[in-house]
Amino acid sequence: MSNIRKEFLELLRTDEEFRYAVAGLLGLEEILRKLDMHGAILAKYGEELMKLREDMNKGFARHDEELMKLREDMIHGFELIEKRLSSIEHYIERTSLTFEEEAFEVISGKLERIGIKIALKRLTLPDLEINVYGETNEICIIGEVTTRAGIRIVVKMDEKAKELMNKHPELIRPKMIKILYTMWITEEAIEEAKKRGVWVLKTTKELTPLILSDI
Fold first, then answer.
1. Is residue 137 classed as helix, strand or coil in its secondary structure?
2. DSSP H helical segments within the chain, as ranges?
3. Is residue 106 part of a domain?
4. Can you name the residues that pair with 146 across neighbouring β-strands?
5. pTM value surpassing 0.70
6. How many domains in the chain?
7. Residues contacting 156, CB < 8 A, separation 6+
8. How many angstroms separate the CA atoms of 135 and 133, rounded?
9. β-pair partners for 134
10. Is residue 74 part of a domain?
């Protein structure tokens, strides 16, 4: 009996047809077939899941590479922008210096033609900076140089003159000429300059009359 049992179990383990025959006798054949079918389906799903996982890993790897490249491109772009801004700043500094030198020459020439010979310079004080300053025994020049001017610039220039009078009266003379030298100015700013007695000049013409103010 023991040997028969061993042979029976061995056949169940190794012989599929015998196994189904026994299962059929026991009413389990259909169940086993379905289990085998489900096992095959699960195995297929397992393979598909493994492939999907591999594809996802590859996708993440590509995504990481793209992000790294994008980061490098952004860094390179920022470096180019910084270089461009630096070049623009240097250009503006060179242009501003040239424009300021031009302003000194034009203003000096116009003043000399009406009998006022005066050396102009930039005045830098601890608490105040004046673009254009000059003085004789009787007259002081206070001016601003800017490529574009609106009302705010005119007001600022006039306030600088008042600030210089209040804080540094030793630099003020009995008469004062307030000057604004510019390439472009709004009509509103011109009207404001007239009200405040500011002489507005461009390279080729005077936009407001020169006023020699008594202090």
1. coil
2. 2-14, 16-26, 29-113, 151-167, 187-196
3. no
4. 182
5. no
6. 1
7. 144
8. 7
9. 141
10. no
CATH code assigned at 174: 3.40.1350.10
| pLDDT given for residue 198 in this prediction | 96
Does a structural domain hold residue 178? Answer: yes
pLDDT digits (tens, 9 = 90+) for 21-69: 666 655 555 565 665 666 666 667 677 777 777 777 776 667 677 778 7
> How far is it, in rounded angstroms, from Cα 117 to Cα 173?
15
Domain that residue 168 falls in: 118-214
pLDDT digits (tens, 9 = 90+) for 59-106: 666 767 777 877 887 777 777 777 777 766 655 555 555 888 889 999
CA 184 to each of CA 51, 65, 111, 205: distance values in angstroms, whole numbers, following the listed order:
70, 52, 21, 12
Do the domain assignments include residue 170?
yes
Q: Which residues, at least 6 apart from 29, have a Cβ–Cβ distance to it below 8 Å?
A: 20, 23
pLDDT of 200 reads 97
The one-letter amino acid at 164: L
Please check whether residue 169 is in contact with residue 202, taking contact to mean a CB–CB distance below 8 angstroms.
no
